[in-house]
Specification:
single chain, two-stranded parallel sheet, two-stranded parallel ribbon, globular
Length: 71
Amino acid sequence: MNYLFILNDPPYGTERSYNGMRLACGIPVGACGSCLDARGITDTELMEGGHRSSMEELTAWTREAEKVLVF
């Protein structure tokens, strides 16, 4: 089964998204490009395995997923 997890949380003050990403061992992790830009975060500052994503990629992942879970 193909799952898509969407972690939607503020960038500071919670560990929820960080913990969700730790569970994503060995799978693609996309970070919202607009959110990164708004906070001045560069691609090199992302954790290993993460990459700058886009709405186009989110759309493709959503279409491919059999289940979408939003946190």
